[in-house]
Structure to design on (872 residues):
């Protein structure tokens, strides 16, 4: 493919800017009813027949010939062997990334707290870790060791006792980088299972696969549908949409750098979205030209080209303040601030998954090893949600210890309100504690 | 109804205890497909036709005759009038409850943080509030002013700029206590809309109702189905199951008190669950007797009787340590520790929505005015989730500002890992930042 990439180009001064922007961001995750029906049946079967069902689906979909689920478990020694078998450079890079991710996430740990009131009443919040977590890891080309680190390390930092991982191994082929990452991240048990049956096994538990309390990790449409269905019975992380980057640039960064940063998002898949905002029209021209030149050097140029043509845009803004406003509307998954004094500028950003500041901070650094998580809210959900973190593997219990004196004052208030709501047992249980 | 309540009674020493316990807790929220279809159509229509659709559904379902949505908005002056019109005792009780809820929730506020590494790289987390939140409040008999306080106050403490509330007013009848609670909690705008159309109006926005970023609050099956459907497009709190209480008692609390505490859960609805664990068989007998006597004095005795018969249980345990274990399996919404030194005992509790400690701390105090939230995880979801809190109305953005020196070390690690994953643009964007 060597034709020019027809990258959308418009300006915030266009009369129809708002509708253009809305159209650019529109993305309907059409749920496929046939996928959902297949998934519902698999889940029902796994819940009912346990190991036997999981084994059948795995042999069928992954073309394996296992005779028991025990055979599909990868022993810890094999994970370690995968790690030790890597070229030193890759092993060191994985370890360096894991160390930085761990060290950043340790700062997110929540602690319990409590306080005592004048009358002796104690209030607080007790923080505990989830007991057991399941990590779904895709097989095949989308198998990313970095994703294992980003999902597993926060769980371990939170204090999750047992971390179970499932990963499909079509034709029995195992991804050594993924196994090595599991070893580094401290995953406790790994099963070669994928798809809805992998999600079901962890949600309901089988004779061999332990039941978990929450399932995290990316997956295809079947995995996403399965996670949606077991949600409520177990916790899940969010079902992610296509990946996005928004770059805000003052026009003074090397246009090749910005073009490559846009590519680094676009190369993920055809639905990925890469947008650049700049007040400098000439700079937009330069980035446009860089894109046309550089794409030819990219092994994934077909994907990049489709992604940029279908969902990319270069947008001229009046000034950087307007860029911040537009960015807050977009609520991007990844936001690059390629401009002077990005730290001051970041105060204007209200909604974004991760903010990459300065011309040197390309998104790729954050994807792998800067420290913060690369599992981020997509499709404008940064308006109301956060990166995956240690807090997703901890939860809180309210603590209430009302003193005898406290029960006298609080009891009257509670009884008044309970009578107002027509809940007499509530009122009376409070009144029992009042001293006559 | 004056027949004896046939309350389930068993012991942890029973051979089939595990399966009995499992059966007791089993609760399938069967999703009604016909409800879901009705809801899907209403949402589609509201998204497409905005005000006109909301107006039609409201007039039809709530038997009103409004000619515009503007008519359905309740002005602030009317909220204040409702507050001022309450009997002084109710007004003071509402205000006292609101003050305590606010003061507790202020302790939950998250703050931004950042740190600088030796090479000048800055990492951190920026915490911001959601812009606009929607609060659903049920109409009719389930309209609880305490619920308005518990949902609205954390949002306002978090710094949410605009809080929209919808509440159905069948035949135009408004609940003055609910309006008064909205005034106290600082709700910004109130619309007399309910059902799926109320959820849709807030999720998509109409000409009159502003679009929100997250919808919280309880509702009937239609509201729950609508929330599930708009989830992802906007945030939602969790879709709650029936309410539950678990009381652990050493046998030294007045059995009438414990019976009334069980009633205070059972009176909510027929599906509510109340369970008592005690090592003292004679005490279980006493509570059983108290239940039979006291239920006759309860205005809601039919509901209490059905709830206790269908879903209640008195369970004898070997000792209090075993009670803690069983409690951790149940992961109750409300847990009362009616025993000596409950603070020490609470350290054994891993999973619970709220822990009520000591013989004086009946659940009702927490429901109304102790301070912590009464919106709590039900149906064993306390294994992986938390009470509603300020943290549900704040979110985080990762901050990454890599120094020029940092880009040299991180760039090499990122490039190695990116090549390992076959993502060349990722690698190259990192390598561009390496100094030649």
């Amino acid at each position: 493919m060597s034709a020019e990439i027809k990258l959308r180009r418009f300006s915030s001064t266009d009369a129809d800017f708002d509708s253009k922007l809305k159209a650019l961001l529109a993305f309907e995750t059409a749920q496929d009813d046939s996928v959902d029906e297949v998934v519902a049946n698999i889940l029902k079967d796994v819940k009912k027949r346990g190991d036997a069902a999981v084994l059948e689906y795995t042999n069928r979909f992954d073309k394996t010939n296992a005779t028991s689920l025990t055979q599909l478990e990868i022993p810890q020694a094999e994970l370690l062997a995968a790690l030790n078998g890597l070229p030193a450079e890759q092993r060191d890079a994985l370890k360096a990334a894991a160390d930085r991710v761990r060290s950043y996430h340790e700062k997110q740990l929540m602690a319990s707290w409590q306080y005592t009131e004048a009358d002796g009443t104690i209030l607080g919040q007790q923080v505990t870790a989830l007991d057991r977590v399941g990590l779904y890891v895709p097989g095949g080309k989308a198998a990313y060791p970095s994703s294992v680190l980003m999902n597993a390390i926060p769980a371990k930092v939170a204090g999750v006792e047992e971390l179970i991982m499932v990963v499909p191994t079509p034709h029995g082929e195992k991804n050594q980088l993924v196994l090595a990452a599991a070893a580094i991240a401290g995953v406790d048990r790994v099963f070669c299972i994928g798809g809805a049956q992998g999600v079901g096994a962890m949600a309901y538990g089988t004779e061999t696969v332990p039941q978990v309390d929450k399932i995290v990790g990316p997956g295809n449409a079947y995995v996403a549908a399965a996670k949606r269905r077991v949600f409520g019975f177990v916790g899940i992380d969010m079902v992610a949409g296509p990946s996005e980057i928004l770059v805000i640039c003052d026009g003074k960064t090397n246009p090749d750098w910005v073009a490559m940063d846009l590519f680094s998002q676009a190369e993920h898949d055809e639905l990925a979205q890469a947008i650049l905002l700049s007040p400098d029209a000439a700079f937009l021209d330069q980035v446009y030209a860089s894109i046309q030149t550089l794409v030819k050097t990219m092994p994934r140029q077909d994907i990049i080209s489709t992604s940029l043509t279908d969902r990319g845009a270069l947008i001229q803004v009046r000034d950087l303040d307007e860029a911040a406003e537009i960015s807050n509307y977009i609520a991007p998954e990844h936001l690059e601030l390629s401009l002077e004094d990005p730290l001051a500028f970041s105060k204007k950003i209200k909604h974004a998954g991760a903010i990459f500041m300065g011309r040197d901070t390309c998104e790729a650094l954050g994807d792998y090893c800067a420290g913060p998580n690369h599992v981020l809210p997509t499709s404008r959900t940064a308006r109301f949600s956060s990166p995956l973190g240690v807090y997703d593997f901890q939860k809180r219990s309210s603590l209430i210890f009302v003193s005898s004196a406290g029960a006298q004052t609080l009891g009257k208030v509670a009884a008044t309100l309970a009578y107002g709501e027509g809940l007499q047992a509530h009122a009376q249980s409070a009144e029992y504690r009042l001293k006559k």
In short: Chain A has a mean pLDDT of 95. Chain A has 17 helices and 15 strands.
